[in-house]
Write the structure tokens for this entry.
Amino acid sequence: MNPFFGSVFWLLVTLGVLVTFHEFGHYWVARRCGVKVLRFSVGFGRAVWRRIGRDGTEYQVAMIPLGGYVKMLDAREGEVDPALREVEFTSKSVWKRIAIVVAGPGFNLVFAVAALWLMFMLGRPDAAPVVTATPGSMAAQAGIQAGDRLLRVDGEPVTTMSDAMDDVATALLGREPLPLVVRGRDGRQRDVVLPLQELPAGRSIDQYFDSLGLKLGPLPAIAGQVMPDQPAGRAGMRVGDVLVAVNGTPLADFEAFAKAVKEAAPKSPQLDITVRRDGQLLHLPVLARWESLEGSPKQWSVGVGAERAVRRYGPARALRAALQATWDSTRQTFTMIGKMVSGQASTRNLSGVIGIAQVANQSAQMGLPWFLNFLALVSLSLAILNLLPIPVLDGGHLLYYLIELVKGSPVSERTQMIGQYIGLVLLFTLMGLAFYNDIHRTLLS
């Protein structure tokens, strides 16, 4: 699919799923609290599909898919039939109104945990945390060498490249020294400290990563994946075999193995691949094939893949991992918000609809587990954003109700009206800034 149309399609899928789930939270709790729901809308503006349910609620899908709403019977919006007074929103206790407001973000939080739970059960293929450093970069000067495997980042163990880079990204926002534990190609562990405090303030995460120079490194020459019905598997190769040589040509890393197969097979498909297993050298006669795998262009292949890191768990362990991942992402998000408010982190790190669309398309192309991970992160971000104490958002309404609990009476309509204007200005400012960042990144890429 064309990248542009793919981004638009997966953005619509993302917003359709998450907005529907968010609004269903408001709808479901409102009904349980005895409030009459007049309309449940996915999207804004003119309806493109509409039906009236048995409960009298109007369900619709509208033309502008950037949100949605639940319209309840509310005395603040006009006269209410006395016979319907008991099912009107403002007639309910403040605690019920709080429950209805919190339900939307709450359902987004539940969705995030559920998506991560399913992702961990399916298993998300990822690169092993093997890194290299750009020559002359901060990482290189700190002592990172090609082929180093990250074991710990800031004291936390890491098993995948994504986990490692997430922890590094969080540390970059704080610009404080970051301790790493790495294992080199020689098998020895080393302590390395990245002097992030030397990075200039006010830059975006992308700029910080460029200055840091820490990248995915040459993967070790290890058979991380061996397809049983392919040449290498039939010749007896096993997962974990160390790839030593192809036709006598020594191998430094997996990239060298792929290059050696590509160069040797056209001369003679019969290859002599030397592997090390349990300390012994084995010579495997492998007959390479000229074929297309998974729709890619034809090439010489022996059915061996690089080392991969897949986190796949049973239901109970997956749930624990999902809860931990949700907590970690929540903590990282609030850390970023706090640092942007204090000026320690740049507002260039904000992304808008364009950025979300691009990442949605990229994650969808990487497979269901990655797309579930993306949905979970966006859903969690929506929950946190909506709980910020900004009028017009759920958090703004929650703030009004908390004030009502303290003072014993509702906030005046004048105060709410002023708050609405302030909230709209803040919201449009954030949206405009995020949109500007998206356009700026697109033009620079």
Summary: Residues 16 and 181 are 42 Å apart (CA to CA). The radius of gyration is 27 Å. Residues 124-219+307-311 form a domain with the Pdz3 Domain fold (CATH 2.30.42.10).
